[in-house]
Design goal:
The chain is of the alpha/beta class. It has 18 helices and 12 strands. A 6-stranded mixed sheet has the order 2-3-4-10-7-5. Strands 1-9-8 form a 3-stranded mixed sheet, with no helix packed on it. A hairpin with a 5-residue loop joins strand 3 (34-38) and strand 4 (44-48). Helix 7 packs antiparallel against helix 9, helix 13 (225-255) packs parallel to helix 17 (352-369) and helix 15 (271-282) packs across helix 17.
Amino acid sequence: MNKSTSGPQTAIVPSALAEDPYAVYARLRQAGPVHRITGTDGLPAWLATRYDDVRRALADPRLSLDKRNAAPGGYRGMALPPALDANLLNMDPPDHTRIRRLVTRAFTSRQIEQLREPIQRTADQLLDAVGAAESVDLIASYAAPLPITVICDLLGVGRDDRHDFRSWTDALVAPDPERPALAREAVGRMLAFFTQLIADKRTAPADDLLSALIAVRDEDDRLSEDELMSLTFLILFAGYENTVHLIGNAVLTLLRHPDQLAGLRADPTRMSAAVEELARYDGPVPLAIRRFATEDVTIGDLTIPAGETVLLCLAAAHRDPDRFTDPDRFDIDRDAGGHLALGHGIHYCLGAPLARMETEIALSTLFGRFPDLALDVPPGELKWRPSMRSRGLLSLPVRTGVSKEAATRR
């Protein structure tokens, strides 16, 4: 096997990914299973692109999420202070197992099902407001506020305290190189917000997830203060950030495939399977969280030395023709089982049932309310977030199909 930490590197340019990511990933996948790349921060990493390799690597215990296993000078991912960094995305067992067990109780199928009615009510309320306009940005008016409302309700964040999470997450996931201070400001504001939120919950606990996690920490001393803060941040960040783009990308995909949308409208029972295909076809997470080899690890025909950073490209894996027939075709009747959009192995997304439910309700309600919904700009004019870390639209201008007269009658 080849083993090398030097040689040519491929620079991954965020703007190219925003314009046509799947063409970029296809070229890489066809050229070889693993590539030495230069990330957006200028640091080197290894990128795996083929489905079998990516799936196997996601569950490989030799690929650690703990930054202490990183070699000096390698790509380490998002930089956060300890109070936000002690989360499940940076942990291996046994700490990962201990903390995951604490929060798993909040994400059982039964408990998630209890959220169905509140999610439906929120979707209806948001579209009641949308219905007064002939055209609207669907991200700002629907895809973003729906998941933030759901996750804030779950955590117990009061309506008056729901700050501009979208600007905070944008600053972290897609930092502006010309304004680096924005990311630092976002981190500072999040720290202040979560510190106050936890203090308020200690003073006045309620029947919500955060109060339950605080009680576990204070009574059993099973969560450190940093772990509690970081877990709260992760639940809010992941529960909002990924779902807003899953919904936004799904709406765009369906609008660009009217035959598939017509089939879904004709038989709404296909929605569940359609959401799986939507997650495969254009999911919100192109890359799994970076990993660090704790020993030499072979992927494809290349052995990656211990300490090196490994990136697993879910977007490339989902378009691998060796796993999915005609993978660039969107088909709601495809068996998309085995897609990796929600992870695989011990780091499989805790909130997967919630994300699926939110997306199903969001799409069914939207297309049921507005049967004539259409894009308000040519697809080529849509603006995507320039990021390796997430795949999402900055805005999604649509025409609702509601006339001024009908809007007035509403």
